[in-house]
Amino acid sequence: MSAHSEGVWQAGWRRFKADRVGLVSMVVVLAFLALIAAAALRLVAADWQTEVGVPNAPPGFLGPRAAQATGAVEQPKGPNVDLSDIDPLAPRYAEWAEAAKRYRSTETPRAETLPLGGDRLGRDVLSKAIKGTEISVFVGVLAALLATLIGTLLGALSGYFGGKIGDFLEWVYNVFTAIPDILLIFAFAAVFGRGIGTVVLILGLVGWTGLYRQVRAEFMKHRSREYVRAAEAIGAGHGVRMFRHILPNVSHVVLVRMSLLVVGFIKSEVILSYLGLGVPVDQVSWGTMLADAQSELILGYWWQLAAATAFMAVFVTAFSLMADAWRDALDPKLRGLE
């Protein structure tokens, strides 16, 4: 028999490795994080703003579009019709067309197709989706971590100590929940302006309330249990009892709530970027891609919408499944069944 008992996180990791769905989901999430790191280091998608293809270039598997009409006005038929009588500039059209050909010949040829298509300016949708993944996931995860930190800390203080500290934190909670989240987001956005850091701060300050209530209830339930009283008996301080003994036993609640916050904050970033209150205009995210795709979809150019939706769906699904697997691995009730 081992001289040391298995720790909470060691037991959780052992149980997590037995969950194949959770393990595969974690690999997918880590692959996205590696892609984000590569984009941040400009190893991939560094030229996402470059117009490398023709406007609305189709995906490579669809092939190039059929030649479209140039929009030139057909000359009127008839023996007595003089085109210069209709348009005084008509004699110059041929000259201007030849001059335009000379200028176009010096430009870099644009691709007729791109791997996942192009947008209305000819930018590569795949590069935009990779760069958008960096911005959207960064905003969603960092804002969720901020909200989780605030909600966990305040919930732990309120649930563990109670009394005047708990009453004050309950008053703060009631103030935030009395106003709809979307109105708080718009109010903070109007005050702080737009920007990636601003979006993270706004979502973090608005999204902690739900986690606070759950953590507070869990700490109120655990603070009087035997293992906490035993820690108190051997001289453990409040901080040790709160964050070394109680917090690991409620971490499954925190993880599940954080996964929901990541998903919700990515959606909030989409809404803010669509309304012009999100990421700056010189950046791209899944939200700005979906906003751009709205006008393209009417014309039948669906590939930017499909790329942004596919990237978002894969990441969100994998992250949610991974969080669920960690919740099951760390749940003390399930550990007790072993």
TrEMBL record:
It comes from the Bacteria. Keywords: Cell membrane, Membrane, Transmembrane, Transmembrane helix, Transport. Pfam families: BPD_transp_1. Gene3D superfamilies: MetI-like (1.10.3720.10). GO terms for cellular component: plasma membrane. The keyword Cell membrane applies. It is a multi-pass membrane protein. InterPro entries: BP-dependent_transpt_permease, MetI-like, MetI-like_sf. GO terms for biological process: transmembrane transport. Residues 133-323 form the ABC transmembrane type-1 domain. Its main location: membrane. It is found in: Cell membrane. CDD domains: TM_PBP2. The chain crosses the membrane at residues 21-45, 135-159, 171-190, 196-215, 254-281, 301-323. SUPFAM superfamilies: MetI-like. Belongs to the binding-protein-dependent transport system permease family. PANTHER family: D,D-DIPEPTIDE TRANSPORT SYSTEM PERMEASE PROTEIN DDPC-RELATED, OLIGOPEPTIDE TRANSPORT SYSTEM PERMEASE PROTEIN APPC. This is ABC transporter permease. The lineage of its organism: Bacteria, Pseudomonadati, Pseudomonadota, Betaproteobacteria, Burkholderiales.
